[in-house]
Amino acid sequence: MSFGKVFIAASLDGFIARADGAIDWLLPFNAEGEDHGYDAFIAGVDGLVMGRATYETVLGFGDWPYAKPVVVMSRTLGAADVPQHLRQRVRITADAPADIVHALRAEGWRSAYVDGGEVIRSFLAEGLIGRITLTLVPILLGRGRPLFGAIGREVRLEREAVRPFRNGLVSLDYRVEHSEKAAGLAETKGN
Known about the structure:
This protein is of the alpha/beta class. The chain is built from five helices and ten strands, in the order E-E-H-E-H-E-E-H-E-H-E-E-E-E-H. It has one domain: Dihydrofolate Reductase, subunit A (3-Layer(aba) Sandwich), CATH 3.40.430. It has an eight-stranded mixed β-sheet. Strands 2-8 form a two-stranded antiparallel sheet. Strand 3, helix 2 and strand 4 form a beta-alpha-beta unit. It starts with a strand and ends with a helix. The relative contact order is 0.25.
């Protein structure tokens, strides 16, 4: 079983944020209070692994939205960059994805919500993502931060479900098909 699970929204042209990191374009689609499957998704993971940019965006929300532990992947931030009120729930690491998975599994984690474009790509490259829920938002941003890009290998996906919502969003659930090489890496690291 792969460790990582992705739950993310992207514009129809494949961007997860504006070029400056802003996600204001998502707000009108959340006005009705629909969770688009998020509550069930988050209940099924032990914690989150996210990148620095995602972490900094979430810090800007005001109230910290996660009750579960969060691991932030960063080569530039350290423990001192975590606000005092979050130090029991957030930690920073510069470790590679496979090393993070190995350490978290040793702590008893079975799966994690993997968030942030670069982090998702790095986990995919190492064969550490098992499921992707991608919600397409009916907007074309024209430019911004891409969800997918070069990861160095082909990744095949098997569609498991499609859920349209009244507000125009469409959620796509995929199982990631792993090659023998990627599966071997996951097994070696404690899968």
